[in-house]
Amino acid sequence: MIDLSGSPAPWPEEATRLWADRVGQAARQTDLWTVPAPRGDEVLRAALATQLGLPEEQLTITSSLRATALTYARRFGHVVLERPTYPGVVPVLAGAGAQVTRASWDELLKGAFGGEPWDTVLWLTSPGRNPDGRTLRGQERARVAELAAEGHRVVVNETYAWFCGHAGTPAGADSAGTLHKLRGVGARLGWMAGPGCFEEAFPELLGTPPSPVWQRAWGLFFRDDGLELLREGLLAEVDAAKAAFRDRLASAHGIDFPAFDGPNALIPLDPRAGGTRAPTTGQPEDSRPTTEQLEESALAAFHEEGFKVVAARHFDTEQPALRATFFGIGAAEAGRFADAVARSPRTALRLRCQGHT
To answer: Are 42 and 150 in contact (CB under 8 A)?
Structure first.
């Protein structure tokens, strides 16, 4: 089974050895076991500031993206959450009492969401949004800065900057993110960066951050070129698999698959191709397959061919699709997946090579 469901790949052996050594170094530093570091370990904060281009004095270490979201939901009554997006923050935001409004980037950037700016958080993901690999650019970035200047609290989830570089957080916006995509949820570290973030998050920081020993181990790993080892191995493999997927679609099938940032891409499904028989144009609307039926049928078909992907409805996409994540697969496997996508009667991509829009 070729797994494109999003599980991070194992690290190269050299990176694992470096990590294990730095864990040992951190464990032998006695003060880390006895002295609190509520803002976060100084070595880790300095390393993240360097790697992500964030102001070190504004950077606070959290345990995860969800923990970061909790602070904003506690302090603000209204959160405008992009769609599609990572679903893990939704129950945190709603459970903490915030009113959550879902909005596309177009709606969000036009300001079509209501609420008072002083009580409203706007939550976006860039670069390389999960699930579609979209990144804020040009006028979009400028508009985000305008919304922040108008008094909205803007939070940009930059978790995927590891995979596609970091153009800098839009002016006036807070940065949030996690290390989980580098190794998995066992990383158990995240960040938030912006003026006043530490003071605002202090109630959560009293009990939720990981041990200073754990934070120092990550800080030493980054400081001593651990991320470079990952870029040469894990992250380079993601880029190679993405390129092989798009190249195979173009060269073998005449399909120009749109470029995407980060490891995630959406494979659109043909809404007429549910189950074993596509509905005719004249069928009543309520007799056509639902998004769930379309996606589950496509998931089963790809599974039979040896590919594991994810239904896009979990990310609140507007159209039926599957999400593919190019972690831990080689170029040859990505090419085989491209062949399966191109020949599938369920995907909308086949229409493009037949002259349809």
So the answer is: no
